[in-house]
Amino acid sequence: MSRFKGLHLEPLWWGLFSAGGVCFAVFLPAVLLVFAVLAPLGVIHLNMNALATAAGSIWGLLFVGAVICLPAFHAAHRIRHGLHDLKLGGGLWSVVLCYGAAALISASALWGWLALTSWF
Amino acid sequence: MAYKAPMKRSWWLQHAAFRRYMLREATVLPLVFALCCLLAGLWSLQTSAQFHAWQQFMAQPWVVAFNLLALVGALYHALTFFQLFPRVMPIRLGEKQVPAALMVVAQWLGVVAVLLAMLWLATSGVLGAWQ
Amino acid sequence: MSEQRFVQVEVVRYLPENKTPEKDEPFSQFFEVPYTESTSILDALQYIKEELDSSLSFRWSCRMAICGSCGFMVNGTPKLGCKDFLRNYPNGVRIAPLAHFTVERDLMVNMEEFLVHLEAVQPFLVEEQQAKAQGVQKYTETYQQTPAQLAKYKQFSNCINCGLCYAACPQFGLNPEFIGPGALALAHRYNLDSRDHGKAQRMKVLNGHNGVWSCTFVGFCSDVCPKKVDPAAAVNQGKVESAKSMLIQMFKGNS
Which chains touch A (3 or more CB pairs under 8 A)? Predict the structure, then answer.
């Protein structure tokens, strides 16, 4: 087992953080503007049936991954390091708490997508 | 026979560079709220009653305010992230390095392209229309 | 040349011999220092030592930003005393020892805390083990390198070991075991060098929790670097290298 000596999950978290950071920067401004600002303010009228069909497609899966799952891990990584910066943690419990919460959000999002697909 | 200054919890308030850093890190806080909103929206697509309830929730002033904050946060994050990217993953062609400014502009063009595509989808009748 | 003005200079001092069981802390001393357009922070300290208080201690040598000895916190920002000027602070200036280091006396800090990390990454060309073992004379000859090979690491090769980046790094302040920006940038510089064979040994240090992974890209280290080395970029490029190295280790057993 000596080949696993000194290995840890940091590269995995950093990879998810980086991918999530790209999605947060590139996709979230557009998504938030349309779904969280313009639609609630009544500027845009959303068609629920069209949304449900689109969300249940393979494009919906990509949307869920790029707009919910990866940004969730991005946020988890920054919160975990933020806890360390504020001398509130950063150890094992913050790893479990932060990435665990991101994993829960991701699982819920993927399940939510699955529930919209035709094979559910 | 030596003095070591303690690192106070408030160290990041002591310098503008550290305050900007913490602001960058804090952009994920409204993001978490916005992600939960989007997740609820995904689940609400099951029935029209749930979808209307979600729309009503999203239209509350405090929810719009938080999501606007998340939008501003996303743009600030983009501003900082796009500057870091060429430094972490520099693209080198022979002896020349692709100018960082060019990579920053290319990334902002990406944001604008996604924004236009999203607006078109939401207003052309594909997913929705102008009110 | 230009008229002489005065400015108040606050110097944060620490005298270990004044230690009492109740109190062992630095204190501030204020001086009125004359200055012109060309008076550096280092000139101000030398004026204080020569004219006002000879007990003040600080390190300096070259006065031209190449020896890296005269690093201080100037109004809270790490600076080289010889490369910063009193004219930038017409309303007064506060000179303190470099942050995050242990203060030995006045403005002198224990640079050993940085040097042990520097030593750990072997910041020099490591010869090929095989060539060494066989006693090959190859490495007494001139190394050859193309301009393209040089361009890969040149940016990171100007470090003068002044330690300003450590005083700028909150992660080093929070965790003194963190290898830190300067040493990690030099590790990256030698890893990128076509003449070097020490990458595998350095990656063991970089891969650890106190290696590249303690960095959160605050980026202040690069802002304060007097030689524009951009250690933050080097450390984060090191994360990509570390991720690759650990993947290889997982599948092949050795980086």
Answer: B, C
CATH of A12-116, one of 1.50.40.10, 1.10.10.10, 1.20.1300.10, 3.40.50.300: 1.20.1300.10
Q: Nearest CA of chain C to the CA of A92: how many Å?
A: 13
Q: How many domains would you assign to chain B?
A: 2
- SS3 for chain A, per residue? CHHHCCCCCHHHHHHHHHHHHHHHHHCHHHHHHHHHHHCCCCCEEECHHHHHHHHCCHHHHHHHHHHHHHHHHHHHHHHHHHHHHCCCCCCHHHHHHHHHHHHHHHHHHHHHHHHHCCCC
pLDDT tier for residue C255 given thresholds of 50, 70 and 90: very low
- Tell me: ipTM over 0.90: yes
Q: How far is A1 from chain B (nearest CA, A)?
A: 32
Cβ pair B71:A29 closer than 8 A: yes
B92 touches chain C (CB under 8 A): yes
Q: Do residues B95 and B69 share a domain? A: no
Residue C138 scores a pLDDT above 60: no
Q: Tell me if B58 and A72 make a contact (CB, 8 A cut-off).
A: no
Can you give the pLDDT at residue B54?
98
Whether residues C254 and A3 touch (CB distance < 8 A) is answered with yes
pTM: 0.94
Q: What is the mean pLDDT of residues A64-89?
A: 97
CATH architecture of C5-109: Roll (3.10)
